[in-house]
Structures are given as structure tokens and as C-alpha cells.
């Protein structure tokens, strides 16, 4: 039965809004009048959700990662308990705290009851449910293990969110230190240096080279700062436009994998996503080729995705998964060894989960190590810049002292 979003007022003139099910919009208005409400707006929940999503997005009205994980966990629990999908979605609609989530669940339920698959219903809301989410759901429907797949998917989303939060928090302090350092240096160059050095410039005395250079830099910062902003914005736009080209993005991602510090972080983050997704699909009984294709789509690095495509070709030709991945020379050896052990014991899923957990811990350790190096380096760099500025100010004073003597 279709779902309709309504806005109405009661006998006291108090506004009411929500979602109800009816055969048609006319039937929905009849239900509202039977409840003593005067309908103002009655429209399909699906059209409301799709039509207003862009406007809501600007106001933060979309499904957050936390809400996505909670909804997935709740739906998995209801399905594992034996509740039909339509009734499970109805329960989520009733329990939703936000109007947006309530309308979203009602729209999805209306699509499911209308004969569409759950994955196709989610495809109507691509911003709330990305491609890989829908691919995993489709695999679960195909194998008849939707509840189990959603449960593992909820675990994956929660672990991914926790890992992402740890990485962001680890780099937050260095970012704040960098911003403060730039602000302090800009203030010194634009205000302090001119006030002090101009006193000595008026004496017609030859100034030290460092002071002359600092005065020129100060004048550039004061008068041409807007040129720097435009140049930075233009450079960012050009780089972004270049990276939109498939060949350029592939070359850049390939270079990034070999970068001294960032390469290991990028490789580790993508390995965690790949192993986790492949483990979920393997546990659901998805064929290996289809699972590899879906897991490859989760990779943000195009070079690694291209290597997975090559591995899919080798697996299709009869090569084992571990050998196909080892030939790419992209994934960590630990992942390949664990998959080989899983193939020997017949339990690839468990080994994939272990590989994902191990790579997540290793990624967290590398992130903390990198940030522990960045913090003192940033402080030293800031101290060095301030020292140069102080020397540029003090050198004329020292020379003037010598002349007085």
C-alpha cells in the first residue's frame, strides 16, 4: 500500500504532519478527515523524498553515517527474528525520530510493497544508500540471506566510521597547529614587521639583507594577499579538473601508492574496505567473481581498482584468488597469505575478517606515528619562521647600537 506524507490542522488549529498508508491520495484525505484533521498537503512520500532531497541536503537533512548504521542494525535484527521485510520497514517507519527518516522508510516500504526488490527501492535514494551498500543488499537478496548480510554490513559501517573518526581526530591537532602558525606569521608580516622596521628605514641607513627581504615579503603580503588566494584557488581548480580525466587520475593514484608516507596509508585504508566487503559477500554465499567486482567498487584508489579488475580476469581463467591478488603486487602480503590459508582450510571468510582487522590496527598505528612526527616538525617550522622574523627586526637594532658606540 503506498505511503503518503501529509500536513494538516486539527480542530484547535494546531498543525500536524506525518506519514500514513492509503490506496490513493483521496483515501489518505478521507482517513485524515475521519481523525478530525483538515488536510492541507497530501503527497506520495517517495516523491517528497526524491524531490526535496537536494534542498534538504543543504540544511543537513540526509541520512548520516551513524543513522545509516543504526537503521541497518535494526533492520537486520528484525529480519533475523523472522519478520517479513515489509513489516520490518513499517516498524522502522514508526520508530523513526526524524521526519526525514520516517518519510524515507515509508517511501522504501511503498516501493517494496509495490513489487520492487529492496535493492531497487534503495536505488531511488542514492545519496542515502551508496552503490556498494545497494550491491551488498542485492547480493543478500539474491542468496536469501538478507538478514545475515545486513548484520555484517552494520558491523562494517560501524567499524568504518570508527576508523575514519580515529584518522580524522589524529590529523585534527596538526591541522589546527598549521592554521594557527599561518595566522601568526601573517600577522607578524602584515603588522609587526612594518611598524618596527620602518623606523630604521627612515634613518636612510643601509639595512641588512635579511631585513630588506622581510620588508619586501611584508609589502607583498599586505598589498597582494588577494593574488595568493586567487592563485591557490585557480591551482586547486586546475588540479581537480585534471584529476577528473580517467588517465590522469589513474596515473596520480598509481604514484600515490608509491609515495613514502601517504602510500602506506592509502594502501591500508583501501585494503580494509576491500577485505571487509569481500568478507561480507563471501559469508553471504555470493559467487567469487561477483564478490570481487563489488569489493573492487569500494576502492577509492583507481590504480588499486584496476589491479582488482586484472585479478578478476585471472580468477575467471581459473587462477586462485590468492595468486591473482599476489600478481597485482598492490595488496599487502599479509592479506594474500591469509587468503591462501583460508583457501587451504576452506574458510576464506574468517581469514578476510582477520585481514581487515589486522590492517585496520596497522593503519591506526601508522596514522598515530605520522601525526606524532608531524606535531614536533610543525612546531619547529613555526619556531624557525618566527626566529627569522625576529632576526630581521633585531639586526638593524644591533647595527644601530654599534654605530652609537
Automatic annotation (TrEMBL):
> Keywords on this record?
Cell membrane, Membrane, Transmembrane, Transmembrane helix
Q: What range(s) does the Type II secretion system protein GspF domain occupy?
A: 72-194, 274-396
Task: Work out whether the entry's keyword set contains Hydrolase.
Answer: no
UniProt signal peptide:
none
- Compartments, record wording: Cell membrane
InterPro entries with a match to the protein in the record: GspF/PilC (IPR003004), T2SS_GspF (IPR011850), T2SS_GspF_dom (IPR018076), T2SS_GspF_sf (IPR042094)
- Pfam families, per the entry: T2SSF
Q: What is its main location?
A: membrane
Describe its membrane topology. Multi-pass membrane protein
Q: Which family does it belong to?
A: Belongs to the GSP F family.
Q: What is this protein called?
A: Type II secretion system inner membrane protein GspF
> Origin organism of this chain?
Paraburkholderia denitrificans
High-level lineage: Bacteria, Pseudomonadati, Pseudomonadota, Betaproteobacteria, Burkholderiales
Gene from which the chain derives: gspF
